[in-house]
Amino acid sequence: MTTDAYPWSAGFRSLEEEHDYRLDEIDGQVPAWLRGTLFHNGPGRNDIGGKWFAHWFDGDGMIAAVRFGDDGMHFRNRYVATDNYRAETRAGRVVNRGFGNMRPGGVLGNAFRLPANVSNTSVLMDGDRLLSLWEGGAPYVMDPATLETRGVEDFGGKVKAFSAHPKRDPETGELFNFGVDYGAKCTLTPYRLSKGGLTALPAITLPYAVMNHDFVLTRNHLAFCIGPILQSPLAFLLGLKSFDGGLHWDSGKPTLILLVPRAGGQPRIIETDAFFQFHFANGYEEDGAVVIDLMRYPDYLTVGEAARNFWKSEWPAKGMATLTRLSIDLASGKVTSRTWDTGQANEFPFVNPASVGKRHRHTYFLSSPPDRPRGLQQRLSKLDCETGAVTHHDFGPDGYPGEPCFVAVPNGAEDDGVVITQVFDAARKRTDIVGLDARNVADKPLFVGRLTHHVPFCLHGTFTPRPQ
């Protein structure tokens, strides 16, 4: 199977092997205070039976864990043993519907069959267990030490869909999330998870069937920006189209800003100009306004096509996202926006977890420089939201970093910590674990741990100070 369409294409190759080893090659020094485990989730198997999957989001979930201990760095990866992974491993071919995949058998083989849960998008520490997340279904429970799959957690039947972007209030410890469910009506259900107990807030009926991936948590609200990326539920349910095939952008409809009270009560819906976003950096409330920082796309067209073609896409920078701040005046409902000069193709934003729901100063994200009109991002960038200063660490010409994860120095300032990212080296066809000084990401890395293989491009991760 060819994977040489572009330098980054080989980074999507499946990793069939499950590893467990201590890293022998580490350049630089891991800070003495950095102890714990970084978990990432992403599509680990992107092809089967000699054929690429129809969409990047169809890949079977694989957890990659990097432990930082007194004995050095340790890597372990395990597939999430979903029903889909086990069935398709046995068959050696696609047997279930997915985000883009269709089952064999044409319309009759796909009608009234929902996409299989591939649990491939994110991870969450919930007490002593690790939850593997995929927004179309319930989480899978993993053992954080061994990465053994224990089963599905639907919280006593309360959860059907559970988003891959939960938000934890750093002061109360409460976790908030949501799920979008499709049927005769499209509903969004917010959830509160506290001390192991899940409470479903009142479901919100949306005016049409949409796809929504993320939200922000503020002091008083869960805030959503629901762009007009619409689903054709009838064509999907009848087996005429995949979920991805049923999505279409309707620029004639507005983006809906949905403000859901944390304490309960009726949500507020504010209409604004159409845009799309996958990811938010953070949100907070100040001076009678809700402030939201997000990666804003002009529409879904460019990013949708790139994710559909993933390994063979040129990933064009034009039409991709820009780091944007929205301010919603709570009295008038007026929406204003501003952008920063942060380069092209901004994505995968991350802030210090202690800043979630509060005014933050620093945001870390991926970007591309103006002279690179195509390709996956090669820079890890930092924005000072107060001064507008932007600094970059460029991994070019061969390095392609993944989502940055901020690990804070205990009791330090907001940007006192280490930013860790997985970097695929297209020349060596291997992945490095790179730690940058969060105060100055442009500096030489604090450490580079070299894996003996590649890790397929991941999506989202989390750090826990427990060693596992």
UniProtKB/TrEMBL annotation:
CC cofactor note: Binds 1 Fe(2+) ion per subunit.
BP GO terms, sorted: carotene catabolic process
Cofactor(s) named in the record: Fe(2+)
E.C. numbers: 1.13.11.-
Keyword flag Isomerase: no
UniProt keyword list: Dioxygenase, Iron, Metal-binding, Oxidoreductase
Residues annotated to bind Fe cation: H165, H213, H279, H460
Highest taxon, organism lineage: Bacteria
Record flagged with keyword Isomerase: no
Top-level EC class as recorded in UniProt: oxidoreductase
Family per record: Belongs to the carotenoid oxygenase family.
PANTHER family in the record: BETA-CAROTENE DIOXYGENASE (PTHR10543), CAROTENOID 9,10(9',10')-CLEAVAGE DIOXYGENASE 1 (PTHR10543:SF89)
Protein name in UniProt: Dioxygenase
Organism per entry: Reyranella soli
